[in-house]
Records
---
Amino acid sequence: MTTTFGVLGPVAAWSGSGAPLELKGPRHRAVLGRLLAARGRVVPLDLLIDDLWEEPPASAAGAIRTFVGDLRRALEPERPPRAAPRLLVTDGPGYALRPEPEDVDAWRFERVLSRPAGLPAVTAAAIEDALSWWRGPAYADFADEPWARAERSRLLELRLTAVERLAEARMAMGRAADAVPDLDAHVTDHPWREDAWRLLALVLYRAGRQGDALAVLRRARDRLARELGIDPGPALAELETDILRQAAHLALPPAPSGPDDVWARATAAYDRTLGLGARARLESTVGLLRTLAVTGGAGLEAAREQRLGTIHAAEQVGDPELTARVVGSFDVPGVWTRSDEQRQAGEVVTAAERALAGLAGTPGQGHLALRARLLATIAVESRGVADARGGEAAVEAERLARRLDDPALLAFALGGVFLQNFSRAGLAERREAVGAELIALSQRHGLATSEILGRLVRMQARGALGDFAAADEHALAADTLAERHERPLVHVFTSWYRAMRLTATGADAASGDAGASPEDAGQDAEAAYRAAARGLEGAGMPGLERGILPLAILCLRVWRGRPLSFAADTEWGPYEPWVRPLLLIEAGRRTEAAVALRRAPEPPPDLLLEALWCLLARAAIDLNDQPMMRRARAALEPASGEIAGAGSGMLTVGPVALHLRALDAALDASHPHA
């Protein structure tokens, strides 16, 4: 498990489980702190000795080696004897500490601040999170050590900058009043930062407190004159003049109240996209659509409705690179393998192919990144389609992303790889590996949305493999991340997972005994499914919602050997071809059932592949349709160790092995041995 380090406060280290590591005495912590301050560079032994002692003893070199040995045991307790250390290494004349960048709080903090400015809400959330990592002054237990001085000053400056950038982001969100308390404390503690005074006056003005804003500027002027003997810089003087004039440029439009207001403003901008600044407007619109898509409900529907219009507008500009950026920037992860709008998905794929053709022959790393994004888009939008192109695009997108060493691009590509790993039954282990990499990559680089996807992928994959304890952990982690980052759609999937889990574990699922579950357990599971379905209402995911509730209940009843009675007007959505034979058998219309079974298409390559094959297998057994039994058996055999449908995280029809045994028995009965 990964060891993490903290210097934003007293020097500390934690195990992968979050438990503090025992670092022994103060000199052990000093060695650790000194190596962290070196930021991966080698610190020669002689310099370490000079930094730890004013008058080094004769045994100093040996003591350092002892400290290093103790630290290595604490930091890598599971390292085999005589195996080379991975973290605290000997390099030439000294030592270096080389953790991953995301494993040191100060390095993570710098990475957050180095990101380009994005949507104010995203920026504010990232900086708020980063500021919460501070446990006190940097290297707090080594404040007087010369080796820590420069690093402490540098990190303090970054922290002060973060406070000011957070205030700017809050203002841009229309939350000026929220920025006042932090900025007030900020200028009190750091009165020589003129930009902090400027920001405090500005947020007060935008919060409707003009008098307080002017008082702050007077306070700043008096303090600078009294204690430093200087006048305020031109920025403060100009702001005071603008406030007195109530200059129009100081005001911000009111903050939107919800996705509908955001969308109204975005579409107003979109109406002007073919005018001045069309390129910038189009790319900004894509960013807005991407953000709306993860909010669910009206936001997701609006993003889906306007995405094609944005792509077509980009194509009208006639710039292949612009079109490629607009098509490839909608990197919203998908966890369900049936598109909400198949026609639109097909048009997006076609546009992506046109953009790829337009980029053909253009050199440069930037174009490689655009190609990778377009290929990942093709992989994502081709999900659930029996076409080799989607899989080929996923493989090539992943290859390019790894070559370019771009974490966000690789996360997008891996999302496409996941969605294309349903070409046959029994691929849960592959999807598990993709989910594990997504989580590790996202944690290293602060990609919250991709980490949520990784958690959901692993929840599904572990469910398919019958490891519900691990699946539970990933469901809980996904819910925690979703709450922190305001991703309401995640709860839809985890609620369905928990309903499915009740179905899968309400009886002796390991033995596959369909009669082992009490009647009330089946009723509880159906009630859980119905409750989960209510969470889908208004979620903006018709590709998931249509037909999933009756299909889940049907699968439960098939597994448990219960009657398959449903209302005549039940809406089966896209699943009707695979359900119809069983319903006709239940109604005693066996001739029609046999025809429906022969006409049933191959189940699509998606999360329900195994479950739908099991339904066909059940109908084929009832009708003694031997060709279909053999087809179903061949399709299901690779998944013999999996739970049918549990990889969907939504429903299950029991262990695949149970259905394979039933098929074998039926086929043997049709051809008795002599």
Note: Residues 146-172 form the longest helix (27 residues).
---
Amino acid sequence: MKKFILFSFLMAISFSLLSQTQVPVDDTVYVNFGDIITINPLLNDYDTEGGDLIISDAGVPEYFELLSFNDSLVSFKVSDYNLSSNVKVIYQLESDYPIPPSGKIWVMFKDYSNALEINQVSAAVYPMNIQFWDAYTGFGDVPVYNYPKDATTTTMFNMGLWIGGKNTEDDLHFAGERYRQMGADFWPGPLSQGNELTCDSVVAGEWLRTWKVTRDEVNIHMTEFADPDYEMPEAILNWPAHGDPAKNQAEFIAPFVDVDQDLEYHPELGDYPFIKGDESIFFVYNDQLEHTESEGLPMGLEIHCMAWGLDHDGDSPYESTIFYSYKIFNRSDETYYDTYLGLFADIDLGYAGDDYVGCNVEQGYYFAYNGTEIDGNGEPGSFGENPPSQAICMLGGPFMDEDNLDNPLGLCDEGINGAGFGDGEIDNERYGMGSFFYFNNGGLQYQYDPSTADEYYNLLQGNWIDGSQMCYGGNGHSSAGGDSLFLTKFMFPGDSDPCHWGTGGLDPNVSQSWTEDNAGNNPGDRRGMSSMGPFTFEAGSVEYLDIALVTAPGDQVKSSTELLQDFISEIKTDYLVNPESFGNQHVGIEDGIEIESLLEVYPNPINGNRIHFKIPQSNTVSYKIYNTAGQLVQEADLEAQENQSIEVGSLKAGWYILEVQADHKIFRSKLIK
């Protein structure tokens, strides 16, 4: 009897819902943090019988403030921010039905992303860890890494950092994301430093944006900043050079050129952003709140990132390459040991279901290529014939722990693909790619997606998710054709590891190089992760990561995978000349260098062929002169003496910046000729 009554009640409700005449249609509004929004959501709603629609109730997320509502209007304030859930306001219609119809007002945050649109790549840049895919508002079902730039085809679905290490109590701290399906490990903005590290969703809302600046904009600003008719670009005007002192944020955040040397950013007085490349996007994020994606303990990281590209004409690897340069600050009072830094990526070449992956040990990159000659079967976004290949190259990673040596090139160790080896400098060696593995969308029991910090950390160390070590051959696991006698760090290296660094110097002595194709795999939807480490991440220190995302076309004489090798070889050769300044287009302040007061130079303005100045007694002295475009036009070493003189007769009329380095101090002066 009770079952019949319940069934009848449910049927009545179902019938009443089916017979409702009021039809709410979803609305979308675009907002910035702090906005007050008043909207009439009834404008696109209707009643099938022509009746009047009246709002009877409204509700907002806990991080918004409902100001008011009446028969037709809803007013709310974007007073807080939450990246962990979809953002929507609900309103109900006045109705006689048991369950009144309700509508949704989707709230989209505007201006929080930007795009690098340079050469042959168009890439969406978000002010968070995950890139190329909008995982932050719930609307991110389409990746935005277009290649070629004006086409609908894409080569990358998403990308993000993983990092983990253990404190002195052996507690694992970890931050990493894949798709934010379970929540978030990272939030926008810098950290507040004091008795404890803090951040909140208000700061996240304030920093939920990117700053895009081009080289052309900087050049114009440098010459026209004092012109009353000059309209300063918003990103230059509001460049986040400094944190908020009232919130105990870092004094210096986004790098800038301090023309007047007062250690403050004043663009109206000629200061300008210090950028890389010809197009650059800057953003900041941290890991201090609860980690609901990995379940790891926060590390207290503040990450400053610059995405950038170099404008090149003609046949150049830079035509299809963009770069990401990360500064990773450990703002905590914890030192982390056995720390690993990794880069997770889901590379999808057009149609995602027919890809292979591999890695190149000597050049330090991993890549995806099509597992079939034709990409896809005519699906939207598939390349069809001649699909490209896509690589992620670790140009330079974290510093290796100090050993008071200039570690040599040419050995079967990190010197194969790292930076700073055999260059005459002690303890400037940086990791390159130290391991590579792949896993599938819905893989086997050892290949599935990680869900806990321990599983993520296993993968970071180059082990399988179950903690077992990777084996050479097959699918890299002892249960899937891998040879347990040959443990390895790299999956599918092909013939790129001739000295067998990955297998500890042991030669597996196989008849075929280890690739997915030779392993007999079926192509599929692949994810990959390369890691670097271990290293000690000191409290209060900073580590660096420079990566190149390189695409090679498939319609050339060489195959796309062969072109990748050529492209990356050229890019990495350029990078290794001077990793610290690679891509720098304008004069900036180097990390670890003390900036002294303005250098007194005479005569200035220059009225002859020489200038003179005086510096403190030093062991080593050198100088550089930059033009208004930030280009180095003259440099030389000087005698170690107090009174100095420089020949400047070759300089053309204009203004310059003279930079003199004496030991570990830098002196600067603006020159006019």
Note: The CA atoms of residues 564 and 607 lie 52 Å apart.
---
Amino acid sequence: MDYRKVGKEVLLLIGGKDNVVNVTHCATRLRFELKDKKKANTAQLEKTTGVISVVDSGGQYQVIIGNEVQTAFKEIQKEVGTGTARTSKNSQEKEGLVSRLISVISTTFTPMIPAITGAGMVKAILAILTLTGLLSDSSQTYIILNTIADAAFYFMPILLAYGAAIKFDVSPILAITVAGILLHPNISQLFAGGEPVSFMGIPVVAADYAGSVLPIILTVWIMSYVDRFAERVSPSFIKFFTKPMLVFLIMGPLALIVIGPFGTLLNDLVATGAEWINGKADWLIPFLMGGLQPFLVVTGTAWAMTPIATMQLSKNGSEMINGPGMLASNIAQSGATFAVAMKTKNKELKQLAASSGLTALMGITEPSLYGVTLKLKKPLIASMIGGALGGLYAGLSGLVRYAFVSPGLAALPAFIGENPMNIVHAIVTCLIAFVSTFIIAYIIGFEDIPETGEAAYEGTTDSTIDIQAPVKGRVLPLAEVNDGVFSKELLGKGVAIKPESNMITSPVAGEVLTVLESKHAIGIRSEAGVELLIHVGIDTVNLKGAPFEVFVKDGDFVTVGQPLMKVDFEQINAAGYDETVILVVTNSESFSTINEHTGNLAELEPVIDIL
């Protein structure tokens, strides 16, 4: 499958690049902030080949692609561009406080995930090398590798500054520079001297911002207002250097004196709260995360715990907020999906469940969750029970995660650390989650999808392919067209339409194969492989494009009913040409049955159906 084409089609179906405020991606999904969500064609997106599901939650419009999401994202990024987000005040005002908070967290953390994931896996490799005695923790090689692994966590405020800048619509470079102020060694040296530190007589509180989370997010949020102030007061002819100067002069002291210390206090309070809960009931958080993770993923609230887990990793070198419970939940998803693969009689569902079950086993659950368990319901319940059981063991055993990776079998090295039993507890957690879920899912079963219901599973009511009318008017058989090539069906079967509207629209969702230079004809291939020719008028090629205003080009992806061209039929008639619009299936030989419908039809009603 060409996921570049999937990316193009997704962008089209969400309302085009002008409807995108911001787009990021995680391991399996595209995360959009849209100006107007009503412009997104959710129903058509969910039917699009290559799209697993669509979720609108957490202040984001999320399109789940799967493991090839980066390919689709790069294609979308080419059209949308990079840099600061294009804000939409109206769209943000419609969001609730919780949705906006989740949106801030996800948009801020998503860009840095590859860095901390890669760094985390380096830490895991380093742990294996030292535990096996292949590398001494006092060697220079160890120090260098450890520095490589620690860099992403030490400079986390800089990584977070980029995502926060995208979210709050400020220059990422300015935001990163402000983060650099907090981490500059001169500041550390001032505090290390033991003398009170002040700025213009105002005390500066000592704080270590390396690995911190909340201080920089709060700083960039405040900076967004300072940025707009600097934009407003800077004269246009010197704005290039006065605006950043004002931002630095205001935000530098403000971050060091007020925002940073306040954010650090919040940082410590959150971390202390998590540790208090863990001290009172160490089984509770992994138990809840193991059982409720699918619900958190579907609602988009799974990101809510990420800042706490990241703080723990930075401060303690390990975390128990996300990793242990997610490990149990992900493996449980796999167990439920493999149970479906074993029990279903539907060949396509069996293939889907087997492949997505393997993916879930590796730590990526969206294909399993949205493609199988959520649709069948009972396997989802089984996965939540099994995930809770695995999470309970993880909590009682004190399981922790040493690196920020999506928990699964491929990421088990992230559970290797100072405690040699930790990896053993991780393996037992996986066994409990998988086995219990598989047994429960197999016993309680599910409503299987019969082979004859395969099309219904994909979101269509039958196997018929409907070709809509590209223009309103009276539909005639091709035999009545005053052109032997069409009337004798030399190009294929189809219909002719006497137009009553000047707008030609797409009869299918698909790719524009060709737009003739004379603009009078357009070729389209539908998602089902039907190749169509829309030919406007007879011999209108002689008009050299004059009556036609075309809105698409070769390679564009179009949806059903999307305007393709506007036609001046009066000009065609005045020039003495036949205005008949012809719709032909040019690969008619590929289909067993093609039925044409004639009579007066409105736009977008079927004029051809193909079996």
Note: DSSP finds 22 helices and 20 strands in the chain.
---
Amino acid sequence: MAAIEKDFRRSVVYQIYVKSFCDSDGDGVGDLPGITGKLDYLARLGVDYLWLTPFYPSPQRDGGYDISDYRAVDPVYGTMDDFDELVAQAHKREIGIMLDMVLCHTSCDHEWFQRALAGDERYRAYYILRDGRGSSGPGDPGQPPTNWDCAFGGSAWKWEPRLGKWYLHLHDVSQPDLDWTNPEVREACADVVRFWKERGVDGFRFDVVNLISKPEVFEDDLSGQGRSLFADGPHVHEYLRELVARAGIDGMMTVGEMASTTLENCVRYTRPEDHELSMSFSFHHLKVDYAAGKKWELAEPDIGQLRSIFRTWQEGMQAGGGWNALFWDNHDQPRAVTRFGGRAGVGERGGSWERVGKMLAVCDFLMKGTPYVYQGDELGMVNPGYDSIEQFRDVESRNYYQIMLEMGKGPAEALHVVNERSRDNGRAPMQWSSAPAAGFTSGEPWIGIPASARLVNAEAEVGVEGSMFEFYRSLVKLRHASDVIATGEVRFLDAGEEAPKVIAYERTLGDERLVVACSFADAPCRLADLGVEKYEVVLGNYDDAPAPGALRPYEAVVWRS
């Protein structure tokens, strides 16, 4: 089956969290036929690629990112025939399929790890195994080899008596890290990618791929670097180039999720001449509401810091010849509409919900890079606001709720933090209608339906003038049609001292100039001179024209020379 090939600079990617998108058989879990049944909706939106989160067999200890078989479809999501039908039907609509490749770690249920547990030396060498500190000999675990923490709390090491070693898991304890220093591991991973490419897949997203190369020497983290200690390791670029070459995917649509990365490394990951990836995800801009840099400590978003991060990454990637993936939301993030002020008037015209949702879309879509729409962004979905910790399914959220209680926070405070930060905010079911279970399923959904589904849903927005969905459609069309947005230069502008919460930038190509100004403030502000007095207004998120030299609360305006 011929792959879909599109210019990634003009493309828009739509991310689907398969478990929560659409359930076709009433078991409460989204599935592949459910996606196939919604392809006309996605074609109407105008997106070019669908990135599907893992649907492979998994014990689901980490939402499917703990994979027990890379080459099969978990029966809860359908069959391989269902997958092939999805690819064929998407291709008929000129939509490409991108798959999530989780090659940093496997599930502990994977055959490779099970064979290691059974004593097979070949497969023991697939994983990172170490003796404990202070061990007196075989059978005595001693202490963990280093003081590294895993992403979900607790030690990154687990003692396994059947191995007689500690194994490294930078994520959940059920996700042992693969040892990429082993050439056989690297070939096995390339073979997985080839398998799906040969089934007609058009692109790949590589999960935490900058963590595949570990430090040369395993030492305690004495500087508080956390994941930065093992991000962008000494052989990561070598391993990526080898993977791309062996799998035969050079030139295909590819993106890497880069944890705790640097600008310099992301330039290298994405420069065409380095033959690694098309683009990279970085997450620095989604930490501007972390108090003291800590995810589970809340703060108001620092818009000055957000502007600085965008400027650094946009202008820095441009200078180095790299390429950004542009996004606010994904399956690991709370909803940006809630995060950046859209808590009022949810589902109603004119509330901060609508203003913030459209403003964020403008800010993101018109920068230099490839925009990613996460399912429900185009509807303005918000955090669900669950009432108890029992309603959460995410292992990280449940772990940190207990950690916060142990630190002295009360249950109400800990629940509030989880509601603001949980990955389940992005994993609540897609809101198709105001019907029971939001039209997601005819059964009992695997996780609770947000109350906002009564007003925020596809049925209420598709084809409705001025709706969030139609606003997103117009942005996709603009992205496809505009050369200056696809390939023009980017430069950030000074919006002035009276606009401290405004992010402004220009895109230029030849004689054409596009100026974008987005206010993250809940009050009006005055703008510095952006040189747009004689420009036409191309797009805005209010129904009437903007006032000269000013922005209203959460207003976004796009001018063109």
Note: The domain at 13-104+183-473 is CATH 3.20.20.80 (TIM Barrel).
